[in-house]
Each structure stands twice: as structure tokens, then as C-alpha cells.
Amino acid sequence: MSVELNHTIIHSRDKRASAEFLADILGLRVGDEWGPFIPVETGNGVTLDFATGDPDKIVPQHYAFLVSEEEFDAGYEKIKQWGVRHFADPYMKRPDEINHNDGGRGVYFLDPSGHAMEMITRPYGSGS
């Protein structure tokens, strides 16, 4: 058996708000609450298990999602409509822009707990 990522826990200020936010942007489904977790499963079977944690102890992390051009369009439209802070770069120096790295498109945006989420249409290193 090859090694595959199965799930990861994302500590959040409000697990429901964070799970629903990301699921809505990416066009995914929020699963049924299980114990302290609210899962959001990605297309490759990896589950993001959102858990409410102490807001003072949440360390912002980065999560990147490879999406189709159509999924990018839909997600980016929601980001703009909802007024979500977003950037073309991980240093947050190019606000309200997207990037065109590797011949695709990408955008960084912050979730309700301050995690840096990213949508890309091409894997890094895959293109021009």
C-alpha cells in the first residue's frame, strides 16, 4: 500500500463556521459532526476535520487546494462577493489580485480563523 494522507485536524475559532466557509468556497459538502470534529472531504478522499480550539492558541497554517478552472471561477467569485481578503502572493503584498504561476491561476485567502487557504489551477512546477 502506498502512503496517502487520510485526514488532518484544523483548529478553528468556530469549527462550524470554518467548515462551512471552506466548503462553500470550494463547492464541497460539510459532513456530519463526529465527536469534536466537523469534516469536509476533498475530491481525493482527504478529510479536513475542523475542531474548535482555544482562539489564543490557534497557530495559522496554510492549506492549498488544486481545483479545476471552473471551480476556481466559482470559488473566486464567492471570495469577491463576500468581501473575503485575498492576495496573489503568500506574503500578502498583492491584495485583491490573483497570480498566474505555472500558466494557471492562484489566489490566497484567509478563513475565519486566520488560516491561509489557497486555490491553484496548476501544481507548482508544472508549467511555464
TrEMBL record:
Taxonomy, superkingdom: Bacteria
Domain VOC as annotated: residue spans: 4-122
Annotated Pfam families: Glyoxalase (PF00903)
Database matches in SUPFAM superfamilies: Glyoxalase/Bleomycin resistance protein/Dihydroxybiphenyl dioxygenase
Annotated InterPro entries: Glyas_Bleomycin-R_OHBP_Dase (IPR029068), Glyas_Fos-R_dOase_dom (IPR004360), VOC_core (IPR037523)
Protein name, entry field: VOC family protein
Organism annotation: Streptomyces noboritoensis
